[in-house]
Amino acid sequence: MKSIKILLKQTATFILITTIVCGVIYPLAVTGISQLFFKDKANGSIIEVDGKQYGSKLLGQKFTGDRYLWGRVMYDNTGTYHDEEGNALYYAGPSNLTPASEDYRSLITERAEAIKASNPAMINQKVPVDLVTGSGSGLDPHISVAAAMYQVDRIAKVRNISTEQVEDIINQYTTGKLLGVLGEKVVNVLEVNLALDGILN
């Protein structure tokens, strides 16, 4: 039977080796590979123009102005914090309301009416569901093509440009189905709004 001293030595050696392999070598290898082959994605897919960062392609931002494309509902009322420079930091998440509840149905109806009021040209069209519901993460950066097209007339009117110009920008930042068959086409809200403002080409 091995002595306690030998067992402790073997245990300490095992812990040291696994710490070095799992805590140092593996993270460095993964970081190195990701920086070498997937640098943009590994660093958060940040949209940067002329040295200024506007946000990540992977995280939704809240746009409320009539001149902008609106994204999905963001449940950002869980608390607002600020960084050292005074910039607001939002912590978003899903709603806890069950879709079967009367409160939820009333909320959806209220949102749909607000969307219709802001897009009078589409008053007789059904409001796309992703304009009145939040995503599981609460920070989905995309909306459906139908949800984007629903807002074209409003954006064009406020910006005094043609609907064709708005549609062209939306089409430019529309991503096709995964592998051509999975999911649906989606529109990146942040990229469209930056393009509308002339920041992205």
What does this 3D model show about the protein?
By secondary structure, the chain is of the alpha+beta class. It folds into 2 domains: 4-39; 44-196, no CATH class. The chain has helices at residues 4-37, 39-42, 102-118, 145-149, 152-159, 163-172, 189-196, and strands at 46-49, 52-56, 80-82, 88-90, 142-144, 174-175, 186-188. α5 crosses α6. The protein is elongated. It is found in: Cell membrane. Its main location: membrane. It comes from Anaerosporobacter mobilis DSM 15930.
Topology:
Layout: H1 4-37, H2 39-42, E1 46-49, E2 52-56, E3 80-82, E4 88-90, H3 102-118, E5 142-144, H4 145-149, H5 152-159, H6 163-172, E6 174-175, E7 186-188, H7 189-196
Antiparallel strand pairs: 1-2, 3-4, 5-7, 6-7
Helix pairs in contact: 5-6
Question: Short summary of the structure?
Answer:
The chain is an alpha+beta fold and 201 residues long. It has helices at residues 4-37, 39-42, 102-118, 145-149, 152-159, 163-172, 189-196, and strands at 46-49, 52-56, 80-82, 88-90, 142-144, 174-175, 186-188.
Features:
about 200 residues, alpha+beta, two-stranded antiparallel ribbon, potassium transport, transmembrane, ATP-binding
Ends apart, CA distance between termini: 73 Å
Strand order of the largest sheet: 5-7-6
Q: What general form does the structure show?
A: elongated
Radius of gyration: 24 Å
In helices, the fraction of residues equals: 40-55%
Number of helices: 7
What is the N-to-C succession of helices and strands?
HHEEEEHEHHHEEH
Task: Let me know the average pLDDT.
Answer: 85
Largest sheet: 3 strands, antiparallel
Number of strands: 7
Count of structural domains: 2
